[in-house]
Design brief:
single chain, alpha/beta, Leucine-rich repeat, LRR (right-handed beta-alpha superhelix), 17-stranded parallel sheet, three-stranded parallel sheet, 17 helices
Length: 513
């Protein structure tokens, strides 16, 4: 009683949500003060507060968390702006939906992705829909499908909506064009309740889209691709799983007209031919990120050399990508992230050439008060380190490539690149020699993830070598970083690394088996 309310509020706000709820039982005064402290809760993930085990996600008839949700939203509902259910296939009933719409009057983000709805949410959307900015129904399912088919009728009321996720939507989407014209992001991959005519109408009514995800491609025709090709503000396009072979009826050449495109992800697209790929590389001048996976009719990847601004490249599941293509890419000297998967014609020679030549865009890193500007998040350098010019490589991932050996890792270790992620998964010629060579990385503390999975020749020796070098590097650096910031994660699934090693290196390395 001697402590004033303002002081108690400051103390209580430093506690977790659960701890505040427990303290409400102390006395009526504390209860009233604690209720006011929930004003700083802006985001709520209901799954974080469930005490029930939900291992059998599809058998939750006995799992009732209505009291938990009511307790949460009655306390922080008037202040919370974002609510989600953790994408855990929880069964959400009508009382839960009703209480959210009653208490959460300022809600701007609602995530109902990967939940089982035993409820009709149309009335709730009437109340909260006009304020929603971000709405997700990703792979959402309904026990009563008629209740799901009512959702699209509320689209016309969502005037402020900027982002919507309808991936794998199984409900009626006839009124999709009613979504506001200011919509910027939509994921409609694999949606079922949609016709080509409705989708085309939606695209024409929404020229301000900056991100479009259609992988798997839900429906459409040549007109659909022409409309997408004429979108003036589109920066990211993910398109995939198109098995139509007739180029005349489904021509991907239209995508080469998207002058604003910066990120392009294409996967399992038969209409993507070598000529179409060449045209895209030549005309998409602003392209900085490109993913091409399992596109069988691209027989030549040398046009990648024409992508002058390319920083991130991901190529997978093709026998056409080879060392010569790496040479043409390296000539631009712009890559900072490189991922290949199941490209059997990429060898160690090509990778070594790429590592030694990319990227050479030198960036100046200045050290001041133990802070290194420009390096990966959380990196701290030694005090009064001299100003240096360094090359920056963010990620190198090479998975299931048969002709890649230790020499690639040795080249990386001697390149002086501050690499954040390295993966050499399922490369049969990677051994302790290559993995241990990474201990010589000049910027070893910048390396946060190392994937050596599915390499039987890797054992404790490689991990111990990296651990010893990391321990020395951390000792030389400033102690301002937390323990989590200092840690490295090494994936050793299906390797010769023994489980007992985890206890030896756990202070600096997290081993994932």
């Amino acid at each position: 009683d001697k402590v004033d309310s303002d002081s108690l509020i400051l103390v209580f706000r430093s506690l977790s949500f659960k701890e505040r709820v427990r303290l409400e039982l102390v006395c009526k005064r504390w209860c009233a003060i604690l209720r006011s402290t929930f004003a700083n809760v802006k985001a709520l993930n209901v799954a974080d507060f469930l005490v029930n085990s939900s291992q059998n996600y599809y058998q939750q008839d006995s799992l009732s968390f209505v009291p938990t949700v009511i307790g949460l939203v009655s306390r922080c509902g008037p202040y919370v702006r974002s609510i989600g259910f953790g994408s855990r296939w929880l069964k959400v009933s009508q009382p839960i939906v009703d209480n959210i719409s009653h208490y959460c009057t300022r809600l701007s983000s609602l995530d109902l992705g990967c939940v089982i709805l035993n409820a009709d949410i149309s009335e709730a959307l009437t109340a909260i829909g006009p304020n929603l900015v971000d709405f997700s129904l990703e792979e959402t399912s309904w026990i009563d499908q008629e209740a799901g088919d009512k959702v699209h009728r509320q689209f016309i009321n969502m005037k402020k909506l900027v982002r919507i996720n309808l991936r794998r939507a199984m409900f009626d989407l006839t009124r999709l064009p009613d979504l506001p014209a200011n919509l910027e992001y939509i994921n409609i991959s694999g949606a079922r309740g949609l016709s080509a005519a409705t989708f085309n109408q939606f695209l024409m009514f929404h020229p301000n889209l900056t991100e479009l995800h259609v992988s798997p491609f839900p429906c459409g025709d040549a007109t659909t691709l022409d409309i997408i090709g004429n979108m003036p503000k589109l920066r990211l396009l993910e398109i995939g799983y198109i098995q139509r072979f007739e180029e005349d009826s489904f021509d991907l050449h239209a995508l080469s007209a998207i002058s604003s495109l910066q990120t392009l992800h294409i996967q399992n697209c038969l209409p993507l031919t070598t000529s179409c790929f060449r045209l895209m590389c030549a005309t998409l001048l602003n392209l900085t990120s490109l993913t091409v996976i399992s596109c069988q009719r691209v027989l030549n990847y040398s046009p990648l050399g024409e992508c002058q601004q390319l920083e991130r490249l991901n190529v997978g599941q093709t026998i056409q990508f080879c060392d010569d293509d790496l040479t043409s890419i390296a000539a631009n000297r712009t890559l900072s992230s490189f991922t290949i998967t199941k490209c059997i014609n990429v060898t160690t020679d090509g990778l070594v050439h790429l590592i030694r030549n990319c990227p050479i865009n030198e960036r100046l890193y200045r050290y001041s008060q133990c802070t290194l500007s420009g390096c990966p998040a959380g990196w701290r350098g030694p005090l009064l380190w001299p100003v240096v010019a360094m090359r920056h490589w963010a990620m190198l991932v090479v998975n299931n490539c048969e002709d890649v050996s230790d020499a690639a890792l040795v080249a990386l270790a001697t390149s002086r690149l501050p690499v954040h992620t390295v993966a050499m998964q399922g490369c049969m010629y990677i051994s302790n020699k290559g993995a241990a060579a990474l201990a010589n990385l000049e910027w070893l503390t910048a390396l946060k993830e190392l994937d050596l999975s599915h390499n039987r020749a890797i054992d404790d020796q490689a991990v111990l070598a990296i651990y010893a070098a990391l321990r020395d590097a951390v000792a030389r650096e400033s102690s301002t970083r937390t323990a989590d910031e200092q840690k490295m994660t090494i994936y050793v699934h299906r390797t010769g690394v023994s489980p007992q090693l985890e206890g030896v290196v756990r202070d600096l390395i997290t081993l994932s088996y």
